Automatic annotation (TrEMBL):
MF-aspect GO terms: FAD binding; oxidoreductase activity
FAD-binding PCMH-type domain segment(s): 41-220
Key words of the record: FAD, Flavoprotein, Oxidoreductase
This protein's name: FAD/FMN-containing dehydrogenase
Any one Gene Ontology BP term: respiratory electron transport chain
InterPro entries in the cross-refs: FAD-bd_oxidored_4_C, FAD-bd_PCMH, FAD-bd_PCMH-like_sf, FAD-bd_PCMH_sub2, FAD-linked_Oxase-like_C, FAD-oxidored/transferase_4, Oxid_FAD_bind_N, Vanillyl_alc_oxidase_C-sub2
Naturally occurring in which organism (per UniProt): Candidatus Contendobacter odensis Run_B_J11
Cofactor: FAD
Similarity comment: Belongs to the FAD-binding oxidoreductase/transferase type 4 family.
Amino acid sequence: MHTPNESAALLDGIRVFIEPAHVRSDPDSCLNYGRDWTRLYTPNPLAVVLPGTVEQVQQLVRYANEHRLALVPSGGRTGLSGAAVACRGELVVSLERMSRILDFDPTDRSVTCQAGVVTEAVQNFARDHGLYYPVDFASRGSSQIGGNIATNAGGIKVIRYGLTRDWVTGLKVVTGCGDLLDLNRGLIKNASGYDLRHLFIGSEGTLGIIVEATLKLTRPLREPSVMVLGVPDLDSVMSLYHILRNKLELSAFEFFSERALRHVLKKGLHRPFDTETPYYVLVEFENPEQLHTDTALALFEHCAEQGWLADGVISQSESQVKELWRLREDISESIAEYQPYKNDVSVRISRVPDFLAEADTLLTQEYPDFEVLWYGHIGDGNLHINILKPVGMNPTAFAQKCGAVSEHLFAILQRHGGSISAEHGVGLTKKPYLHYTRDETEVNYLRAIKQVFDPNRIMNPGKIFD
C-alpha cells in the first residue's frame, strides 16, 4: 500500500498522459469499478483509470512497471469469481471508453472491435448485417468483449456454437511488459508456430490487457423454437438429452430446478404449465417454417410414455420464445438479493448423472438449513450450484461454511475428472481450490508463462494463483 502522498504523486504522473477527468479516485468510482458481482470482497483500489487509446494503455502499463503499481483490468464487472476485484490498493483499468466497432468484413464474416464494446452491441451489429454472434448469456447487456475473452465466456449456446475461444480469430493485447502484440490477424489457417492468442483467452487479465478483438460471425438461427419440459428426476434429464440431441438440431439444452423457478416467478413471470415437477429442461432448436414441430411433438409423446417428463410446452411465437427463455435466464438476477454462494463446475457430459447424484446427496446432507438451487448448461456438462444466504446470517460466516463444503464437493468433482470453474474463471473465489483441477506441475508451467509476459507481476496479481 502507498502513503497518501505517494498515491497522489502516482496519480499525478498518470494524469500527464491520460486526461485528468479519466483518472478517478472518488469513493463512488472506487466502489463501482473495484468490484464484480461476487460482493464477497471490500473494494479498495488506489484509483480508476479509463484510457481511451491503445497507446494510453501501453503508457499506463509501462508506467506501472516503472513504479511497481499493480493493475486490475476491468470490463463490465459481471464476473462471479472475483477476477476483476481490486481490494489491495491496485489501480483499476477500465476499458469502457474503448467501445468502438472498428471494422466489418462481410466476405470473412468478421467484426473487429475494441475491448470495451458491450456483448449485446456486437450481437446487434451482427444482426443488422444479417449475421449472428452466438456467444450469449444473461449479462449480455453489460458484459464487455474484452472481459468475455479474458474469461473465455460460455453461456447458453455452447452445445452448438462452443465457447468464446471458438469465435476469436485475432487479438491485440498489451502485455505485462507494455508490448503490443497483434495475434493471428483474423486468419483461419495459421501454422506459423505457437498461437499466443489462446494464452490470453481465459487468462483473466494476468498476462496483459486485451485491447482489440476480431470475431467470427455466422448465419442466424432459423426460426428457433423452444420447449420447456417438466422432469421428475435428474436421470430423466439425461435421458431427454440423449434422445433430443439425436433427433433435433439443438442450439441449447438448459435445466433448472423447481426451487429456482419459484424465485423467477416471484418477479412476475408465469409458470409455463400447471404441473409442478422437481426439475425442468429448456430446449431450443431450429425450426424453419415449423419443419420440425411434428418431430418434436412425437418425441414429447415418446418421452412422456417412458416417464421421463410429466408436462411441457412448445413456443408458438417469437415473443413466447423470449418469455420461455426468461424462466432460465432470469434466475441469477432473481436470487441476487440472497447473496448466493456460487459454484460453477463442469464434468464430461457422460459423467453428469453420477456426479449429480453424488453432489446432490452431499449438499442435502451439508446444507439442511440452506436453500440450494441447481441450474445450468447441462448440454455441455456445466452445472451451477447456488446456495442462498439465510436472512440475517453474517456474510463472512456464510462464506466460510460454504467454502468448507466446497472442499468435499470439489473432491467429488476431482474423482469425476471435472473442473472447479466451467465459465466464470478462477479469480479469487476459486483460487484455494485450483489443485482439484490442475496439479502442481501444471500450475508451475502457468507461473512460468506469467513470468514471461508479466515479469514484474503487476497484472492482476493474486488472481488464479499466488
